Amino acid sequence: MTINNDRIQKLRETLKQYWGYDDFRYPQAEVMTAILTEKDCLVVMPTGGGKSLCFQLPALLQEGLTLVVSPLVALMENQVQELRSKHLPAGILHSEVSKFDRKQTLNALKSQQLRLLYLSPETLLSPPIWQVISNPEIKINGLILDEAHCLAQWGESFRPAYRRLGTIRSCLSHHPISIASFTATADINTQKTIIQSLQLSNPEKFLVSPYRHNLQIQIKTIWTPKGRKQELIQYIQRKHKQSGLIYVRTRKDSEELANLLNQEGYKNQAYHGGLGSNIRRQIENDWLQEKIKFVVCTNAFGMGINKSNLRWIFHYQAPLLLSEYIQEIGRGGRDGKLTEAITLISETTGFFNPEDKQRRQYFLHRQIKLYQEAQRFIKQIPKQGNIEALSREFNNTNIQLYLSILNSSQQLRWIDPYHYQLTLNNPQSSIELLIKRQQKLTQETSQYLTTKTCRWHFLLLAFGFPPSNNFRCGKCDNCLKIKN
To answer: Among residues 479, 476, 484, which one has the least CA distance to residue 338?
Structure first.
């Protein structure tokens, strides 16, 4: 890409003025240039690589509004709070915003006082907000999809609204807009899903390896539930003076484990998506200010939260997906210093401690059940229709999930964010492909947890950055065994 020197100089001046940095890290300047020249982008940069700056800074240099779609309230609020502290015109809308703040933001939006507006996908596509945003008088420069891996990882069964975002550009045709998607992890298939779902037009790709030389990965096999608790407590005894995170898979697990560790004398908090917004913000601040050294959390914690001296990440239970896992360990060691990433797994047979095996099977069974329900649902709906009418007719909370699955299996396409059309694909074979893909992802995680090769070699290969055959990180448990 040809980079205009005057534009780069202006970007550097703005960077220095508001963020205090003298220059960019690769590929920040290149991404910003692409955005400013209205090109679609697919950006894969490691956690802590400075993704948010890539779209925040260009938005300040453009007239009009940049929409930022983000999956988590915590992520949006942290970024908007930081922008406002620099006196930059940013707003936020999501389901937990108070009526007063919502009204203030909408007024600022209508009077075109904002440069950045953060929204959840559900809020963006809610009819009252969409009516305002799609008003031809509001100039929109671009759509940013932050944490875009959620489109593939969660979009089918957790946040189905992601699947409807690809139609936004055609609905805002009164203003030409570009679309840029950002994520820390996206393998080849996820990249294809993002490009296809968002209908990106010949996107500029910026793909940076997720490898972090200072992350020391270790997988430990435990034999009983009691042994799992003992292993964690012994680890906390050694590390309780350093900043860390403990990841679990469910809200119940986070609360039970946090209580256990508090009873053992280690001050901490449980964190999950079921907590109120104010409580979550307080826990985040307590952790960032080191009033508590660690948090027992689900994957709701961590995205966009920057803590440079995070020294250890402890997965109390085996991760279900590598995409989640590499995001979570990537939050450690942003200061470049050695950071430990420990994961506990049950012995592989599941005979002595079947919880990992049961959790994996439950996850797969739940996904397959949804796929099969969607397959039956397609026979009950008209070839063309709209999502609101279906929701009223069927009165089923899973309607959006089914439509998302049918879109993912290419049996349904979105005409606009609210109207769909069925295609002529074979439903049986399409759903079977989804099931096989889910089984493959789960199997890949199991293979990683039990591999005898270098952990980083496996991860880089899985995410489309194949290292040389003789590559070894030299720090993971498997590399250290070979050394010894």
So the answer is: 476
471 by Cβ neighbours in 10 Å (0-12 / 13-18 / 19+) ranks as middle
- Kindly tell me the sign of the dihedral angle through the C-alpha atoms of 462, 323, 207, 216: negative
- CA 97, distance to chain mean position in Å, is 21
Contact assessment for residue 169 and residue 142, using Cβ atoms and an 8 Å cutoff: no
The burial class, CB within 10 Å (0-12 / 13-18 / 19+), for 373 is middle
**Nearest in space to 475 (alpha carbons), one of 112, 218, 222:** 218
**The tokens of 347 are what?**
């012995």
The C-alpha atoms of residue 333 and residue 166 are separated, in whole angstroms, by 35
Closest CA to 303 of 460, 20, 74: 74
What gap in Å lies between CA 307 and CA 407, rounded to an integer?
A: 38
What is the spatial distance between Cα 216 and Cα 175, in angstroms, rounded to a whole number?
A: 48
Q: What is the pLDDT of residues 432-464, one digit of tens each?
A: 888 888 889 889 999 999 999 999 999 999 998
Structure tokens at 158: 């957790």
Q: How far apart are CA 379 and CA 427, in angstroms?
A: 10
pTM for this prediction: 0.87
Summarize pLDDT for 41-84 with one digit per residue, the tens: 999 988 777 889 999 999 999 889 999 998 877 778 888 988 99
Q: How confident is the prediction for the chain on average, in pLDDT?
A: 89
d(CA 37, CA 29): 12
